[in-house]
Amino acid sequence: MLCSRCQRNESEVLLKQIAENYVSQTALCRACAEKALAEQHESVLTGLLADILSTRRPGPRERACPACGLTFARLRDSGRVGCAECYSAFREALDDALRRVHGASKHTGLAPAAETRRQLDDAIAREDFEAAARLRDRLREP
Amino acid sequence: MSFQLQNLLKLKMNWATASGPTHETVLSSRVRLARNLARLPFPSHGSPRHAAAALEDAFAAGRRSRPLAKAAYLRLDELEPTEHLFLAERRLISPALLQNPKQRGVIVGEREILSVMVNEEDHLRLQAVDSGLCLPSLWQRLSALDAEFGRSLEFAYDRRWGYLTSCPTNAGTGMRVSALLHLPGLAIAGMINPILKGLQKIGMTARGMYGEGTKVLGDFYQVSNATTLGRSEEDFVQRVSGAVLGVVEREREAQRALSEGARRIEIEDLVHRAIGILSHARSISFEEGMQHLSYVRLALSLRWKMPIGWEALNELLVLAQPAHLQMRAGRAVASAERRVLRADMIRAAF
Fold first, then answer.
1. pTM for the whole thing?
2. Which of A9, A138, B134, B336 allows an S-S link to A29, with CB 3.0 to 4.6 Å?
3. Ordered alpha helix ranges (H), chain B
């Protein structure tokens, strides 16, 4: 099958793209697939995130992540952070953006075991035994 | 072809067995968790050395875990491009990242129920897939696997944001709960778009699985949670299950109305023409094959007597894809010849 974009090279890649909540699968040659990937935003939410970040001017300490060096400009353009530390480095911007994207800004789901153990200690310290029992059950699960 | 991939091609995919609840409409359920290693930059931003460390750690953690101790451990840089496409067609790796196979890998568990993608957008993507609408039990299995990986690896986590992901739209639970739906009744009745819009209003993402633009091939749709932060994992599982059950009910009503009403003869005609083509064609494109297989699937769902069963039909949806045909042939096959191989394979099943 010929590449459906350039109509010159043999297609090698089936590219899936999402637009308006539909997925398209297009057969492309390698060069065209790379171009198409660079142009697309992976999902509606990623696009929304990029839109929100693009209206924002980074604060003086928000220009780059001290751990991995990712710049605010790159975060805004790619919609991707570079490492776990980026969430602290760009806290204000992400706080605003995530609240609007998710409609929430606080995680209420599971935590890794080490974190659950810390929460258990906290619950015991403040004598919240109901929470402590729940956390203990969670740690006991196989 | 690698020995492990040959095995994948031969062994059954459990989701195709058509054994789960409401499998007529819900082909498969899937739960996916995005996880990153706390001490390494995320794959999109790390060096090859970082990626190599993540791959090694992930494979080691998998081998230590009970569910994946005997799984297949595949490194993409040891595989051919057709083999990458083969894995993407089985949804074991994501097609968007096929450009760069270096230091990427996938762990595939028994019958492809549990699998782990390594160094895609995130260091780890744990996933569980099975037949029918079975999200709570899948979540239990995946949660246990997550806990086992969590004993070996330190995940990037923050009290406020939860699990940290490369794309902040996945942060929090890092969880995507989805179901693959076959909705031929609603499609023929022209009711798909309002249903998709309704799903979006209740926080779901709904989209066609195959096809281009607004033309969805074979009437397969995927429904999943749109957001990942601010609710518990169980809550997301319940919400998606509830939304999917609602759609299943609407699809059943649409099928009943079509099969009992004035349009029955139209449906019978579509189905029997489809059988005619599938059992006689000498060359068939993926697109045409999917459309006709969809009609036969509708007939199975209406309990009409068909020359093919559920499991064989579900498997054809996967096996008729381009890389699968080439893997079965054991060589590269150009698209004109693929159409011939596809027609041969479908005829043999009818």
1. 0.87
2. A9
3. 3-10, 48-64, 81-89, 135-152, 184-188, 192-201, 233-260, 264-280, 286-301, 310-319, 322-329, 335-349
B119 touches chain A (CB under 8 A): no
Helix/strand/coil for B1: coil
Residues of B in contact with A114 (CB under 8 A): 154
pLDDT at A20: 42
B53/B72 Cα distance (integer angstroms): 19
Note whether A22 contacts B156, CB cutoff 8 Å: no
A26-67 pLDDT, tens digit per residue, is 777 766 665 565 444 445 677 778 778 888 877 777 789 999
CA distance A32 to A14: 11
Q: Per residue in A89-124, pLDDT tens?
A: 999 889 888 888 898 889 999 999 888 888 889 999
Q: In what order do the strands lie in the sheet with B105-108?
A: B72-75, B105-108, B114-118, B124-131, B26-35, B175-182, B220-225, B204-208
ipTM of the complex: 0.87
Contact B96 A103 (CB under 8 A): no
Distance between CA atoms of residues A67 and A71, nearest Å: 11
